[in-house]
């Protein structure tokens, strides 16, 4: 096959141990087979969710990078016009919160990077992020020149050097300030290219002593950290307990993203596991969208909304598709 040289080198590093297959959330439901793709087969690569678990368990090469490239190749996706116009891979939706709820930028201790999903579809979460940081005494500003973190499949046809240059440009725009992201995928991508960035979960979990001084929440919550292994249940649990809320102890797993035939099954599993919880707390904006649109689903809170709620700000809750009744 006519495969880019760097990708071919990664494929050649596969030793066929099969560990990637064991951790893939898609494969048990007839989805993608990362080891087959690494061996040059189709492997139903279009069903890859991009979670990265294959690379987290692999000690020899980087199957996730291969999967994303091969998914791009198989889908024939090109760089979208929206990216060329705005720097984001999806069109900016006309959301009511844009004219009603704007973040209050109070300083530049850190700079907030919202990411594509928040900027384009869930802009109210940007307000929640700023409020959560304010609640722990961190004055944040808006990251100038913020654009896509370069994770999405349509951008995987670019060379690694091209993708790095976009990310490093965002790093330079921070002017030496730390970047806090609302999406674990964004912080992971930026960090891979040497940009100083961390997800807001880590910022909040280091400041639980400040969170514990806020209003106490009488909620029982489930936790879904999302696919990225740099954010865990324990990270979010420390924040949940600091607000006074209790943790339901639910099993965790993938939300299914938007992979047809798989996402529906996985979302039903997640909802069963969270039965009895007042809400589910997530770290990922993409997960937020999935849980907030689930039929008869548990209400969802982004972790920044949970802290904002303890801070006395519930202004973002009215924009949820599944209205929280607390």
Summarize the structure.
This protein is α/β, with parallel strands linked by helices and 326 residues long. 41% of the residues lie in helices and 9% in strands. It folds into 3 domains: 5-75, no CATH class; 82-205, no CATH class; 215-319, Rossmann fold (3-Layer(aba) Sandwich), CATH 3.40.50.
Which blocks of ≥5 consecutive residues have pLDDT under 50? none
Order of helices and strands: HHHHHHHEHHEHEHEHHEHEHEHEH
Helical/strand content category: alpha/beta
Distance between the termini: 56 Å
Write out the strand line-up for the largest beta sheet, numbering strands in chain order.
Answer: 2-1-3-4
Largest sheet: 4 strands, parallel
Overall 3D shape: globular
Tell me the number of structural domains.
Answer: 3
Total number of helical segments? 17
Rg is: 19 Å
């Amino acid at each position: 096959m006519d495969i880019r040289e760097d990708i071919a080198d990664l494929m050649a590093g596969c030793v066929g141990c099969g560990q990637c297959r064991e951790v893939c959330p898609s494969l048990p439901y007839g989805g993608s087979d990362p080891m087959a793709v690494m061996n040059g087969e189709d492997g139903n690569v279009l069903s890859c969710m991009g979670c990265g678990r294959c690379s987290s368990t692999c000690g020899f090469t980087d199957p996730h990078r291969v999967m994303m490239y091969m998914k791009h190749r198989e889908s024939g996706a090109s760089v979208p016009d929206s990216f060329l116009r705005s720097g984001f891979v999806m069109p900016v939706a006309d959301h009511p919160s844009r004219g009603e709820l704007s973040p209050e930028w109070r300083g530049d201790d850190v700079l907030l990077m919202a990411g594509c999903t928040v900027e384009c579809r869930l802009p109210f979460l940007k307000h929640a992020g700023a409020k959560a940081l304010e609640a722990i005494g961190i004055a944040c500003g808006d990251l100038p020149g913020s654009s896509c973190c370069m994770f999405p499949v349509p951008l995987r046809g670019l060379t690694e050097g091209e993708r790095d240059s976009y990310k490093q440009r965002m790093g330079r725009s921070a002017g030496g300030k730390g970047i806090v992201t609302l999406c674990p995928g964004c912080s992971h991508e930026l960090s891979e290219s040497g940009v100083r960035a961390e997800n807001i979960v880590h910022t909040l979990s280091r400041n639980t002593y400040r969170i514990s001084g806020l209003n106490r929440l009488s909620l029982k919550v489930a936790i879904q950290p999302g696919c990225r292994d740099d954010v865990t249940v324990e990270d979010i649990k420390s924040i949940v307990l600091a607000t006074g809320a209790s943790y339901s102890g639910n099993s965790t797993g993938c939300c299914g993203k938007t992979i047809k035939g798989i996402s529906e099954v996985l979302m039903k599993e997640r909802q069963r596991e969270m039965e009895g919880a007042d809400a589910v707390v997530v770290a990922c904006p993409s997960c937020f969208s999935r849980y907030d649109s689930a039929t008869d689903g548990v209400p969802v809170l982004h972790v920044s909304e949970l802290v904002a709620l303890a801070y006395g700000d519930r202004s973002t809750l009215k924009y949820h598709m599944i209205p929280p009744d607390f």
